[in-house]
Amino acid sequence: MKNSPTYIPVVIIGGGPVGLFLAICLLKKGIQCKILEKRHEPVPDSRSLGIHPVSLELFDKIDLTQPFLNQGLKIQKGFALSSDKVLGEINFEGCPKPHNYILACPQFTSEAILREELNRLDDSVLVTKAEFNELKQKEDQVEIYFTDEQGNNRFITADYVIGCDGKNSPVRQRSSIHYSGKRYDDTYIMGDFEDNTDFGSDAAVYLPPDGLIECFPLPNGMRRWVVKTDSYVENPDSTIIVEFIRKRINHDLTAIQNVMISSFGVQHFIAETFVKGRVILAGDAAHVVSPIGGQGMNLGWLDAWRVAEILSGDDIDLNLKEYSESQKKITRKVAKRAELNMALGRKTAIPSIRNLFIKSLLKKPLKNKIAQLFTMRGLESWWI
Length: 384
Ligand SMILES: Cc1cc2nc3c(=O)[nH]c(=O)nc-3n(C[C@H](O)[C@H](O)[C@H](O)COP(=O)(O)OP(=O)(O)OC[C@H]3O[C@@H](n4cnc5c(N)ncnc54)[C@H](O)[C@@H]3O)c2cc1C
Description:
The protein folds into 2 domains: 185 residues, FAD/NAD(P)-binding domain; 86 residues, Alpha-Beta Plaits (2-Layer Sandwich), CATH 3.30.70. The protein contains 10 helices and 20 strands. A hairpin with a 6-residue loop joins strand 14 and strand 15. Helix 1 packs parallel to helix 4, helix 1 runs parallel beside helix 7 and helix 7 runs antiparallel to helix 8. Bound molecules: flavin-adenine dinucleotide. The site of flavin-adenine dinucleotide has 32 residues, from helix 1, strand 2, strand 9 and helix 7.
């Protein structure tokens, strides 16, 4: 079977940021793989924007950092404000070097960089317009059934199939792996506007009585605004977000160029196991955490790195078991941090007390711990 033209050691389902990064890691370790991706083009929206130092340190190991630095923007500082007064500052400059910053890079840019790197290594790995349908686990191999670009039903055999196919993961569903969690009541609207603030490359988090507003610098003179809403805004448009921002913090975005508006709700789900026989899950297929705090894609990259290490080493079965357990622990921690972020941005009966609390968090010695939390440090420690 291993000499068959339909055999490849590893098949990845899903060519989002996690599947692409995983394929690059596997190729760098000398493991042949294929990605089956149902789309032809990358998703055009800019969902994720923050790349954390933990991911950049992985990129360093495979010479992938520079293309991200060329296109991203370093955020070294962030301010917490009430409606107008500064409550405190988080500074990442004291964090471990060289990546003592969060890199702002829209998700479509990250995906484009990863696609380019993958094609540079081997342009036959990513197969687009290929939709995974079904899998059958055999004792020593797994059969993967998919529909190709011409609509033909095809199959391929592999030692392992890795589901990087997002939160609704067909791989997870076909493998009967339970995905449990909850949807939160928290809802947000976000939009990318030309930057007309004085924050430059700094981030700002406003905590006015009516609900949180965050704004983050993006490359090319743009800024991402995220606004907490009382309920999910259907069909959002720029006038809605402009009005929220004017009312809550008196900042005017009228007539400012805007390239994206969307609404999102928050959920946290986790798979009961990340490994079942020859099926492995990584990224959103294994876990979804709240986007507040910007950790989901980075967490998926940590999964991908670990999976590539295991598949290129000895004791694969034992280490995959350990992968499932340890990444689940890390996911729970990441979800807790995201929950804390959300809780601090919710409406409260006495905002002045919440703001005093935030002021105290942003003073030494806690200030440095908070910077660690915001840069996804210490995920293996006992501390939240
Ligand atoms: C508003 C918002 C903001 C966010 N901000 C951040 C942030 O700042 N930082 C951060 O780290 N994370 C952030 N995230 C989370 C991040 O977007 C996700 O964690 C990330 O996209 C997950 O990547 P993935 O590759 O696992 O899944 P996906 O991006 O969902 O990719 C899955 C891929 O699988 C493909 N696929 C699905 N089914 C099939 C099939 N049957 N056959 C073949 N292919 C298939 C899909 O077409 C898709 O390309 C944010 C999310 C949201 C919603």
